[in-house]
Structure formats: C-alpha cells, structure tokens
Structure prediction request, 482 residues.
Amino acid sequence: MTVDVRSYVGGTWRDGVRTTADVNPAHPTEHVAQTHLGDARLAAAIEAARGAFAAWRVTPAPVRGGILRKAGDLLEERAEDVGRDLTREEGKTLAEGIGETRRAVAILRYYAGQTLEPDGVTYPSHSPATFLFARREPVGVVVAITPWNFPIAIPAWKIAPALAFGNTVVWKPAESVPLTAVHLLRALVDAGLPAGVLNLVIGKGSEIGDRLTTHEAVDAITFTGSNAVGRRLQLKAAELGKKVQLEMGGKNPAVVLADADLAHAAEHVARGAFLSAGQKCTATSRVIVEQPALREFQERLVALAKSWKLGDPLDPDTRVGPLASEDQFKTVTGYLDIGAKDGARVLAGGARAGDLGDGYYVQPTVLADVPPESKVVREEIFGPVAALITARSYDDAVALANDTPFGLTSSLFTRDLAKALRFAADIRTGVVKINQESAGLEFQVPFGGMKESSSGSREQGKAAQEFFTQWKTVYLDLPPSA
Ligand code: NAD
Prediction:
C-alpha cells in the first residue's frame, strides 16, 4: 500500500496540487511514499502560524517544554520505525538513521529543559525607584527551511528551540525526505501541540521558496542548505527586514601532523569522509598530511576506503550507503570526472559501484595529486571523496587548511598539545576537532561556521536563544504614592 505524504496546515492534512514519488536511493524503482506537492496551502500555513502565535507566546514556557518532552518520548518509542523510513528515503545506513532519530529525541528533551532556564536578567538602575530588567521574548512566525541530509536532526534543532521560546513555525523540509518530516511533526502533534503552532509545507523550494520567505507575516527565517540558495534568500529577506540565520556548505580540512597516531587519524578521517556517503556539511573533504607521515597515512586510509562495505543501507554490515538521489549521483560523479581531467591520481574508489544494481552508489574514494586550483579541492562535493594534499610543515598545513572560502569544521591529528591549541586559534572554522573526525556534533554547544559557511547567530545549545528570541527591556517605577 502506498503511503501518501501531505502538508499539515492549521491542524489539518492537505492534499497537494500534484504528486511525485518519494524514491529509495538504494533501489530507485521502489517508491517509499507518494508525496503531495503544491502551493495552495502556502499562505494558509503562514496565516495559521500567525493566528496561533498570540496564544502560544503566552503559554507558560514550562508548559511548552512539557509538550516537547512528551514529543521526545513518543519519538523515542518510534525511533526504530522512523529511522528505517529515514534510511529508505535518504539512503544513510540504518544505524545512522536510527541514531539520527535518537539525536532528535535528545534535542527535543534538551530544549524542553531550556524552558525552565532563566529568560532574562535584572540590572541595577541609576534610580533608586526603578526596577530594571530585560526579558527574552519570541520573535514571532519563523520559517524553517531544511535540507535532506539530516532530515530529522536539523529540523529538530531548529523547530525545538523555536517552539520552546514561544514562536510558531512554518516548516519546509527538502521534498525528497517528506516521510521523515511527517514522523517528527506527528510526534509533536501527538504530544499535544495546538493547531497552527507547527505547520508543514511540502513543496519544491524553487517553486514555493520565494513566496514563503517574503510573506509579510513572516518574522524570521532559519535556513540550512546550499550557499547558492541561502545567499539569494538572505538578500531578499534583508530587503524586507526579516531576521535570517543561514547554515550552508563546507570544504572541511583534516590536518594530519607527522607525530599523529596514524591508525587513529586514518580511522577518523575515513569516518569524516565516507560515513553517510560524505553527505554531511561537516564531512572531511581535504586531507592535509605532513610529508613524513604521508606514505603510511595514505596506505592506511586507502585500506579503509577499500574495505568498508558499500551496500544496501538496511543491511547491518553496510558502512556506506548510496548517495541520496540521482541529482547527487550526477553531481558527485561529475566531480570525479573533473578530478580525472585535472590529473588526480585515484588511490581508491573513483567510480560508481558496479555490482549494486541501479542504486546511486559511489565507492569511497581517495584522490592524490589534485592541483590546488581544481574544483575538486575548491568546491563542496558532498560525496564520499577525500583529496590528499601534502604539507611541508605545520604552518604550511594551516595555510592550506585556511585556503578556502568555507569555514565550517576542521580537524587536527597530533600528539602535541601545544600545536593542538595553536591550531584551535589559527584555523578559521566555527568548529575545531582535535584527534576527532570533522563531523559529529554535540547538541548542547553552539554550532555554525565562519566565512561563507554561515551567517547570523549560531544554532544549537543555549546559543539558539539568540536567533529565536528578542530582548525587551523594562523600566518599572512604582507610582509616586505607593
Ligand atoms: P538546497 O539549498 O538545495 O536546499 C535546502 C532547502 O532549501 C530545501 O528544503 C530546498 O527545497 C530549499 N530551497 C531550494 N530553493 C529554495 C528557494 N529558492 N527558496 C527557499 N528555499 C529553497 O540544499 P540541499 O541540497 O538540500 O542540502 C545540501 C546543502 O546543505 C550542502 O551545501 C550542505 O553543506 C548544506 N548543509 C549545511 C549544513 C550546516 O549546518 N551548515 C547542514 C546540512 C547541510
């Protein structure tokens, strides 16, 4: 039986104006669901969020938190099924799909806890009669636009703080992962979220994005996705005076110094580069190795790339699943062609997997001798591809690592703690991992990038409060007679 996936507006499910197939990237002839796409509900969703705001903003924060906590509990009960659907429509392995769902559970609970935290500060006034305080209030109607690569964790880390701090939300997930979106929405609705507080709009960004982000009733837009879309959206939103937060691409370096534990470094570089088929904004893409360590490190990384099982993501032995879509497959194989033309040497992988049917599989790939100006080392590939680059020294390695317009995450492998701290200061990325893979985030700390990778205030942890609230400062004098 085909599952139909619809938008959810003002507390009711809405048919689309047309439907499209939700494709399993491991078996593209298998349709996970039928997705209703369309735009008729767009204005209604924003109006529903606007209408629900008045009551939601004055709902006591701990009551809002109670709903988030219950949603976390419901999602935890459903995690295996949700993770399986996530894997079927996105392609990451089942362990990753269930793991990501459990991360969403933890995020919901974390922001439930945040509703019990102080929401303001008192200040000493220059006047003895004045009680002076500042409080954080919600921003209003927030549009959340999310990508397909973390289809439940990223929405959770936007929607949970937005709701916890009293905003109402219109959420547009990537149209290739609608079933996972419905699972998150259902957990919140089943937990008692009032109608209109969270609205789900399923549609193509190119068709509905502009109207969604420029609508006059929208106060703030939180976006995660590509640089091209994010920057365009920012320009339009700025013209209209809307608050904007952007999390975009990366070209994340891993630096391996000569003194590093090379077995550990190779394992973590492989994890950063190949898990989730490299489709993480935080994935390792450039591997900068100090000359004396190059040979041994390279051998170790290549051995891992060749031995990690590529295959059906529902198979428990699989380490690397398919790319998420045909478009992704074309993009990544296009970069492999560019690498070949630019003279890169393929040490492992470098092609579509030959024996896995018509799924969108690309082998974990290690490239060497890629010219520094090649697009393969300049642009985000978003696939299981690591380019090795040789460095003469620590300073050379840092210069190479910083030689990119992006600045999301980085990692360094060394036993030298002085160099580790120097690197943490020298590198221009929003997240720095020492002796850890560049991907993998904890939800209680700020997350975001520098340079072209991000714009606006940080996501996650307490830092999320900055975007989803605004200050109100109150000067209170008792009446003279009191
Ligand atoms: P994308 O920019 O194509 O799409 C992201 C979202 O924007 C989708 O929901 C899409 O439908 C929507 N969209 C598309 N056109 C739009 C428009 N004109 N107006 C409004 N919305 C529109 O990105 P993607 O391919 O889904 O995701 C991959 C990208 O996301 C990569 O660049 C990756 O690095 C980035 N990403 C960044 C982070 C981060 O936290 N920095 C995390 C995950 C992914």
Q: What stands out?
A: The pocket of nicotinamide-adenine-dinucleotide is lined by residues 145-150, 154, 172-175, 205-206, 209-210, 213, 224-226, 229, 233, 247-250, 281, 380, 382, 408, 449, 453 (CB under 6 Å). The mean pLDDT is 97. The chain has 15 helices and 21 strands. The radius of gyration is 23 Å.
